[in-house]
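WP5 quarterly update. Target: ABC transporter substrate-binding protein. Source organism: Methylobrevis albus. Length: 338 aa.
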Amino acid sequence: MQRLLASTVIAAGLFTAGAFAAGGAAAEECGTVTIANMNWQSAEVLAWIDQIILSEGYGCDAELVPGDTTPTLTSMMEKGAPDVAPEAWINAAREPLDKAVAEGRLHYASESLSEGGVEGFWIPKYLADANPEIKTVDDALAHPELFPAPEDPSKGAVYNCPAGWGCQILTTNFFKAYNAADKGFDLVDTGSAAGLDGSIAKAYEREQGWLGYYWAPTAILGKYEMVRLSQGEGLEHDKAEWDRCNAVADCADPKPNAWSKSEVYTVVTDRFKQAGGPAYEYLTRRTWENATVNKLLAWMVDNQATGEDGAKHFLAEQPDVWEKWVSPEAAEKVKAAL
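Structure tokens (predicted):
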């Protein structure tokens, strides 16, 4: 396990002796903090942002440790480690997590993605601008001519979620629920996430119509501006119907339903909440929008950047976002370190 320490090389005279003393006090208060470095891009870059800010801004001995949703949250609930899960998609573990929070063993510091994780059916913004009447899935399905299928342009295409993913079942059931086949559409399987991304890129290059499943935050939505369609005017998420049919493979009678919001929180241990002081307060304020994340992920893909590279780029280029999360003193220290 690689230990990631804050840089200690600071130009002579940059800070006063009093500032050094304050930094030492912060380090003593915060101490060592372990941060789960999840194995997907948005979580990885957020873990690095936290590592840099906690180390440089608040004097913590911040260490990244490997992580993934289920094993990390299970370890936090059972063993009290690691201290921080920066981007925890909690829907699948909501009941035991809520129990741990009620017992005071864990805490929800902030909603790391302010809008939550977003899923749904999307169309390119240029097509939405040219056809402002298309607001819902049904609106789009009324115009198969705007979304030509790759194998048969006389039909429309709805692009499915990648093969083997849970959302493939959902998209297939929604295709059936909206009677898309009867409205002149084919359900197109792209085989993989790369294939799905490629279909969006190809449509954009040709300025053609595209309709299909996607999610945020993702790099592709940072590179290609898309508009998410409503599942139906006034339609709200019906969990009972979702569990009965929408999420069940080969369900015979699926009905239209709104996608559930994927709640994404920063989860911390009680030990760190009690010991972290101002460092913990930073995590309670640290939240960002999907559009911000999308653009950062697109930059990372275009530049083959690591999570560390992405974090440093974000901190250098968007102080208007992250300075709201930290104290003025911490902001100056982070800028000096960069």
